[in-house]
Amino acid sequence: MKKPTLLFLSLKMLKKGFSFILKIMLVLIGREILQRQQAEAKTRLLAQLEAQQRMNEFLSIASHDLKTPLTSIKGNIQLMVRRMKKSLNDTNGSKEMAQILLEARELLERTDQQLTRLTRIINTLLESARSKTNTLDLLLELCELDGLLHEVVQEQRHIPQTRVLNLNIPSGDPVLVMADTQRIKQVVHHYLSNAHKYSKIEHPIEIRLQSEGRAARVFVSDKGLGIPTHEQARIWEQFYRVPDIEVQNGTEIGLGLGLHICRKIIEQHRGQVGVYSTQGGGATFWFTLPLASQDLQMP
Ligand code: ADP
What we know:
By secondary structure, the chain is an alpha+beta fold.
């Protein structure tokens, strides 16, 4: 073999070897970068989880510590209102005294209403902290979903009588689910109170129950403002409220926690939640629950 050919071959091999080493180096560097990114992501996730855990602990402690004094303030106020009612019948004919007592009673009653509101907010915060860690206590029992919906409609205290509530339930056998009745009622109450809050009083609200294969689905529909498509996923997040939305009934502005808690309750029951809506075209909120299995339904 001639010398230049040998030289050419060795150069070629050198080049091949060099490109091989380069490839290995690139792979190693790539792997190093990936490992570093994975480690960073893991650290970030751990930090997030820790922060979330601390926040939940803080919320739980704060809510508990706020609730105890509130309960005793509320009790004392209610006691005072009762005493004043009694004293009003015993003012020895003094109109001035009666007037003072009447005004004081009104003030106390208004304070009591504000305390109820505050207690509700604290309860919501506490629930939210619990739902984050999936530690909502569930008391599961076999329950008739149709009966439960009837009860919710009858129990409505925050929706005025003038609002029409249409209950649409399939005829036939009861729809049985394994559920915590109080928690499911809480979800239906919340859907209903939102439907009332975000739609005009003259429009009826419809509550519908449907069995679909292995699940039961409950719908609550209103003819209110609706929710823009791009906001529909976010309304289930903690503290999220659709901007510039006008409350149609009641003055109570929420914290953006109610739907989040509803989702957690339903997910802990192995169900799903969702909404169908168009802006200006009303909203239909729904949830599903697995039907109680056939053998459970046997007498
Ligand atoms: P809030 O207590 O603040 O109402 P929710 O978690 O119940 O919180 O609801 C989150 C947001 O979803 C509300 O602030 C409102 O913007 C929107 N929303 C909920 N229900 C309806 C509804 N039926 N119609 C229109 N918007 C709704």
